[in-house]
């Protein structure tokens, strides 16, 4: 039955993809999305390539999973900053570029918005489901739990191995203060990425968080930037698919999160 549904989806895709030509620049990379790659929005192509294990497809403004279920790609609603944060669809996650240097500008928070339906579908829809997807990662003399889906746990292991072998001077920053924890982002109704087991907090003592310095600030207020984490640590995480909360206007410098699609978007945008 599932096979039959998949065949129907493929046939539907062949028929209707050409009609949805909103943003159809082809990715320069040679990712094999499918033969209709050229008519898939760029951000959908980036998503599909960043989650290769899932064999995602783009069909008629939806991201379709292997089991035949789908999530709307672009709800067509124009959103201000808070609405992007609170009601992000998949396309909204790509609305801000991720900067790999310099201090973030006003409300520049690439990767801080998440389409909850997408992440629940990928990593687990509740705490119990996510727990079943957690693997142990060896982390500087201890172990931490991390989601194995789409290679997240493996990528975290690569971060640890690289710092252990090549950058021992950063080991003092590597004490984990938490990975998986099903919870909301402080002061909001949004699920934290820790809920999905794809985020790690390190070096709390050397860290800064926008709410600590601005306890009464609203999210759209102007705030100053603070960071005491060496940026080289962020570069090592980024190399392996993690974004850093220190690149956010709403800085959270202890926070690293597995978001290969955000980094891939940045690579694509940086190409000449
Ligand atoms: Zn965190």
Protein topology:
Blueprint: H1 2-16, H2 42-50, E1 57-59, E2 62-64, E3 70-72, H3 81-86, H4 116-123, H5 127-131, E4 134-139, E5 142-147, H6 152-166, E6 176-178, E7 199-202, H7 210-213, H8 231-239, E8 242-244, E9 255-258, H9 260-270
Antiparallel strand pairs: 1-2, 2-3, 4-5, 6-7, 7-9, 8-9
Helix pairs in contact: 2-9, 6-8
The structure holds zinc ion.
Task: Give a written overview of the molecule.
This protein is α+β, with helices and mostly antiparallel strands. Helices cover 30% and strands 13% of the residues. The termini are far apart. The N terminus is likely disordered. Bound molecules: zinc ion. Zinc ion (ZN) binds next to β7.
In short:
The protein has 272 residues and is α+β, with helices and mostly antiparallel strands. It has helices spanning 2-16, 42-50, 81-86, 116-123, 127-131, 152-166, 210-213, 231-239, 260-270, and strands at 57-59, 62-64, 70-72, 134-139, 142-147, 176-178, 199-202, 242-244, 255-258.
């Amino acid at each position: 039955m599932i096979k039959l549904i998949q065949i129907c989806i493929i046939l539907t895709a062949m028929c209707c993809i050409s009609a949805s030509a909103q943003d159809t620049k082809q990715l320069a990379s040679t990712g094999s999305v499918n033969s209709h790659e050229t008519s898939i929005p760029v951000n959908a192509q980036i998503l599909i390539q960043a989650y290769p294990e899932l064999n995602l497809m783009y069909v008629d403004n939806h991201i379709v999973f292997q089991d035949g279920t789908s999530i709307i790609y672009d709800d067509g609603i124009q959103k201000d900053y808070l609405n992007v944060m609170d009601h992000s669809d998949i396309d909204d996650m790509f609305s801000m570029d991720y900067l790999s240097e310099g201090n973030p500008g006003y409300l520049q928070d690439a990767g801080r918005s998440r389409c909850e339906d997408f992440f629940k579908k990928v990593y687990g829809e509740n705490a119990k489901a996510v727990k079943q997807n957690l693997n142990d990662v060896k982390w500087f003399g201890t172990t931490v739990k991390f989601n194995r889906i789409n290679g997240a746990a493996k990528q975290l292991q690569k971060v640890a191995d690289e710092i252990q072998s090549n950058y021992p001077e950063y080991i003092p920053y590597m004490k984990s203060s938490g990975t998986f924890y099903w919870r909301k982002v402080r002061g909001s109704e949004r699920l934290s990425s820790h809920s999905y087991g794809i985020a790690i907090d390190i070096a709390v003592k050397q860290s800064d968080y926008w709410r600590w310095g601005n306890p009464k600030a609203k999210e759209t207020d102007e705030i100053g930037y603070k960071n005491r984490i060496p940026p080289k640590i962020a570069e090592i995480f980024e190399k392996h698919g993690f974004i850093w909360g220190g690149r956010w206007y709403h800085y959270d410098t202890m926070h690293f999160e597995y978001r290969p699609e955000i980094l891939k978007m940045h690579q694509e945008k940086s190409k000449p």
